[in-house]
C-alpha cells in the first residue's frame, strides 16, 4: 500500500497545515465527505474534493528557526494515518475477515475499565524488579561468603 499526500492549505495564524492523505485504492473521490444537493462531490476549483475523511490539520511546532520545506514534508509524512489505511484496505479485501463476529456476544454487557500501564510505569516496575534481583544476588554472595567464612572458622577451631 502506497500512501500519498498533498498539502491542501495552511494557516499562518495557527502555524499549521492541512494535509490530505489517500491511496490508489482509497482515492480522494472515495474519501470525499462534502457533497452537492444532487449527491455529486463538492469540488474545489482544481477539481479535487472540497473535503475528505483524511484531511488532517497539523500544527507545526517548530518556530525558531522556521521549518524548512524538508521539515514540513517530514512532518506531513510522519503524520500519515498508516494504520487507518491498512484497516480500510483490509476491510475492502474479501480474503481478510473483518466481520468482528466475536463482538456479538459482548453487545450491551457492562465492563469495568482498567487503566493500562504506561510505558513510564512499566519502566519503573522493571527497574524496581532489576534492583530487587541485584539485591538478591548481592545477598546470595554475602551469604556464600559468610557460610564459607563460618565453615573455615569451624574447621580451624577443631
In this structure, how is the largest beta sheet organized? 3 strands, antiparallel
State the helix count. 4
Secondary structure tally: strands: 3
Rg calc: 30 Å
Mean pLDDT, to the nearest integer, reads 90
- The proportion of residues forming helix, as a percent range, comes to 40-55%
Tell me the distance between the termini.
81 Å
| Structural class by helix and strand composition | alpha+beta
Shape: elongated
Strand order of the largest sheet: 1-2-3
Whole-number total of structural domains: 2
Q: List unreliable stretches of 5+ residues.
A: none
Question: Short summary of the structure?
Answer:
The protein has 158 residues and is an alpha+beta fold. The chain folds into 2 domains: 3-97, no CATH class; 107-158. 41% of the residues lie in helices and 14% in strands.
Notes on the protein architecture:
- This protein has 158 residues and is of the alpha+beta class.
- Helices cover 41% and strands 14% of the residues.
- The chain has helices spanning 28-31, 69-78, 82-92, 119-157; strands spanning 3-11, 16-23, 55-59.
- It has a three-stranded antiparallel sheet, with helices on one face.
Write the layout of secondary structure elements.
Elements: E1 3-11, E2 16-23, H1 28-31, E3 55-59, H2 69-78, H3 82-92, H4 119-157
Antiparallel strand pairs: 1-2, 2-3
